[in-house]
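Re: Re: token formats

Sure, here are both.
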Amino acid sequence: MHSLVDGNGLPLVVLLTAGQAGDSPMFLPLMGQLRIAQPGGRTRTRPDAVRGDKAYSSRAIRQHLRDRRITAVIPVPDDQKGHRLRRGSAGGRPPNFDAETYRGRNVIERRYCDMKQWRGLATRYDKHARTYRAAVVLNAVIAWTKH
């Protein structure tokens, strides 16, 4: 289960993949699905900032965000820091990281925690992905109506 949420922890996009699929390869498809209706008619497809964990620290994701003028609030993993430092001046500058803004990333973890309170979502009783996705979407609808 891969999800984009807003600053209040309300789900905006939810995608399902196989259990062994990683998070970072699904980032670009998630961003491609992002559509936020605005009062006044224009649909918004670009958030102000993206807060992600270290799994999303890749050149492709950072370049995609830079191309779309989206602020990346993603920490750099220790192994990437080490590679850059080993290369010396050829390693380039470290990417910007705002630790204060990163503190707000816990909303996605709280969203997953709320979803996993449904036993059917936590243990995946459903045989078909279509049925499981329906339960995930129903959980998202309930979250939006409670808000």
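Second one below.
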Amino acid sequence: MTYEPVYTRTPRNAFVPSPVFVGIFAIFVVTGWMTWTTFGNVKVDIFLFIIAGWLLSLCLHEYAHAITGFFSGDRSVADKGYLRLNPLKYTSPLLSIVLPVVVVILGGIGLPGGAVWIDRSRIRSKLRESFISAAGPLTNVVLAVVLAIPFLIGVVPDDLILSNGFGGVAVNAAAHGYFWSALAALAFLQITAAVLNFLPIPGLDGGNIYAPWMSPQYQRAWNLFAPYGFILLFLALWQTRLGDWFFDVVYWLAERIGIDQLPIAAGLELMRFWSDRVFS
């Protein structure tokens, strides 16, 4: 006889944001102000602003999976702490926090890791299963659009990046160019995360969107490749022309929401505060 726990009562504080999330949000706000005012070392400010913003988006991405799973029938996500936006509750902090941050720093690609475990046996609809998987990257789409609003409505000045007189370019601090470049880079990361996670690749959200509609035989084969899907994609992006095509698509999408390539490149380069290349 197999015992299956029954979740009948949601913990009282299940939906209360965790102190960890509140702390990350505070860092995001403070470093945003520091970047806006160029307080202290602006490159360190930008680094902390983008990383804190990316961590917030990771939490919201996984929260979207969890909350849709909760309302689709898997009440266990409340007991696991997934609804409190606490990244320390994720199944693998290394893959869910450390690896995505490292990839952002090294490659400028937003990659949410697998973080919350949904009990699919409690989900009674293939459509709901697909929506649970789609909820994460859809959140990145929403975040990208929200971050792009200042660019879309014309709040951001056109002269963010100027010639430095030596054949190069520099950020226009008088136009708050550091802040806007960092915001452009953060929006760019959201676009990369959405595009990657909509790809029908085993182990990523895109693959999980399609998996419920496969026959059991195909699902078993699909699941065998799931642990290696990200590794193969990572190698393809860095070692083949696929990476160039990927960035072409992402930059094209960024332009559709009003963000040019140059401030994105400035933000990503300035984030690497240990480097003195290109932007100053």
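The chain has one domain: 19-271. Residues 42-72 form the longest helix (31 residues).
- S.
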